[in-house]
Write a structure and sequence with these properties.
The protein has a single domain, classed as MetI-like (MetI-like fold). 75% of the residues lie in helices and 0% in strands. The radius of gyration is 23 Å and the shape is globular.
Length: 268
Amino acid sequence: MRVSRKARYALLAGLVLGLVVIYFPLLLVVVNSFNASTTFGWPPSRLTLEWWRRALGDTGALTALGTSVVAGLAATAIALVLGTMIAFALQRYRFFGRDALSLLVILPIALPGIVTGIALNNAFRTILGIHLGLLTAIIAHATFCIVVVFNNVVARLRRMGRRLAEASMDLGADGPTTFRLVTFPMLRSALLAGGLLAFALSFDEIIVTTFTLGAGQQTLPIWILDNLFRPNQAPVVNVVAAVLVVLSVVPVHLAQRLSGDTTGGGRL
């Protein structure tokens, strides 16, 4: 299809405008992390590394960062195991209610975070009698992290088909051997991509975490929210937010490259 020059310019203008709307506020956060003024006057009259030095020595931010990493890694591990198992069950076998179950698996990521948070809070405290803490936050994160792993694995299984696995079985390999030598190598990049996306999703989560994390504990996004309007902490918050932007971009970028590889990667 041929596009006129005016249409190309209009599309380019729309692209540039969209990128500006998305990324200019993020650029301001990064620049303000070097702004010597605590009022964040624009343009910055002077740049400094003082706020970065303070951020590196802020025990509250470092503790919150550690909590976010632990929660993200644990939720990702759970999601990789359960998401992969569910993907195999729903993709490789046909049974009554299969489509309905597939919808139920994907539904948690489509629900508003506040609904998920309230539901899990009530389930933990009222029904199960579990005190809120890091474990409950990990379980809560895993409920939506499973979805991204499931989507990646299902997409890869659809592209793989079953011919190679069946050929391996015909040649005498048992189920575990076929999975180890044939299926898993072809799934590896999809699992890594799903794991990276799951970790990024967990690391940035704030609404569900607010309802499921125990008192006195903070993840990095919650720490940012709690300190955002404190005058003495505002510059440090900008530094932490800038770091958070970078930490979020890296896994998403890697996941995109892995899920779009030419060896059979399925896109989300």
